[in-house]
């Protein structure tokens, strides 16, 4: 496969409460809510997007807050940790800020020479902040977070698998280089990527399979610049034997999906057309935007969805 993929695009997870989810990402992590829409396949459920000022690929965390959903069970066959990039020297600030907001699971560690602060999301989601000195991406300075501390976007993510060989070969086929192994974790990285450059594969052969629910990652998406690149990736994957969906219009990007050997759902998404296709850049994430096929149901959808207070 040619070097079409340039890093992560977004990570999509499941939540139990739209309000708690929005509060956590905007008021605790200081990200911008860049889109408030609904699940294409279940329009009685929000689809919320958070990221930098524009929702740049490589910065976007998205959620399906299914009302009343039970908590997921961590295990193999899923994304275990989503890692955000923060400025060098900012972990002390974040440890104090997150602790002050009642965030649980705070623990510092070092992986592949990067200082990290691990923490839990509202539904037990696995997150970490990593100090990355060379990351020049501007973060969103919301809720009192300054440019010296702001989250720049993703650093990468960790896949938890029983066997990492086949998935590692897939990542290399997708353009990632195998860099190093530390304990049970092997790092793969895109050279000259978009900043969200790394995928770590953690091998846990004796662990139980994950069960999806609140706090689980639904899928992880990789970024390509446009639809031509996406079609080239799709053809290469299909030529290798992967079952890949047709291209699907997700309003703000075009998407294809396929299941990896380790069971993780991968998506490849375009950078076009972007989150400002139906909202002015200064007002992203404010109004409820509906896919065109659901617009006729707006009254029913708005009556059913729980309001989100900003």
From TrEMBL:
The keyword Oxidoreductase applies. CDD domains: PcpA_C_like (cd08347). It comes from the Bacteria. The keyword Oxidoreductase applies. Keywords: Dioxygenase, Oxidoreductase, Plasmid. InterPro entries: Extradiol_RC_dioxygenase, Glyas_Bleomycin-R_OHBP_Dase, Glyas_Fos-R_dOase_dom, VOC_core. Residues 7-132, 153-271 form the VOC domain. Coiled coil: none annotated. GO terms for molecular function: dioxygenase activity. This is Ring-cleaving dioxygenase. It comes from Paroceanicella profunda.
